[in-house]
Task: structure prediction
Amino acid sequence: MPRLRHPPARALVFALLSLCASVLIAQDGRIRSRVELVLVPVTVKGPNGTPATGLTRNAFTITEAGKVQTITSFSIDPVPLSAAIVLDTAITETALTRMKSSFPALLGAFADDDEIAVYRFEKSVEKLVDFTSDHARISTAVEGLSRTTSPMLTTGSGPFSFPGPVINGGPIIPGVQSAGRTTAAPPKILHDAMFQAAEGLAARDIERRRVVILISDGQNHNSVHSYDNALERLLTHEVQVFSMGVDTSVFQRVRSSLASYAKDTGGNAWFPESQADLESRYSASTDSARNQYVCGYISSNKRPAAKPVFREIKVQVSLKNAEVRHKRGYYQTP
Result:
């Protein structure tokens, strides 16, 4: 894997353009933004599932809120990452142990110039390590992880799931203890963790690609923030999510927030069936985030007058049967 030493010059130019595309001086003397460059990282895979390389600007078509946009900038330069690793430590003990043992492979998926922060969540969100390139410090923090709440019965299946008796992938008596008492799900604030990770990434250098690596079963209970709140923060701060689902049944995966976060931000979601599969998905995530086509355009839609408005984005490529991944849209500000 190539090791990046300096941020690409083109990425820096993009950053300056996005901040300074055009300004005007209002009557009150304050400088206000008039237009801004919208950057859309795009992952393209061919019919065989491998990355599609060699595409040019002319291969891409972007629409925003139904209007075709003119692509004014285009880049294929790899960039360093700012990554927030978000760990769900309320999964089963078996899955938590396997997740921790896979962590060296996750750290190995990052380059020397990448920076990493680590969060864990159960009934609260805790930042274990602030952004750093010190892998030894990160490993030490993760090695000491343990659950802080009582294990939940889970409807998961597969190598990372609850080992108790199940029928069709679910516990025989889900949600009922041996004494016959119904148990309420303990707090598990996935959406709050994603919101906090997005806020932490907001302060990272703009020439870096901001990503979240989420390892969880996708369950959420009693978050202060909703999925929409967390997604708004992720999109506003240009964050992509790459999710690893553990302790999940096939049924749970269909409507999982893990898949939703990935799809809406332009990342990817995987539900590994083995330890080796989980570890291979780490490098697939970082490679995908680092090596993307980046299309830039200045929106032809009128800026909102009072509050931010969500603008849906759609990207098409001229390559037949291609799989295209990109963020769902962005919030255009007044």
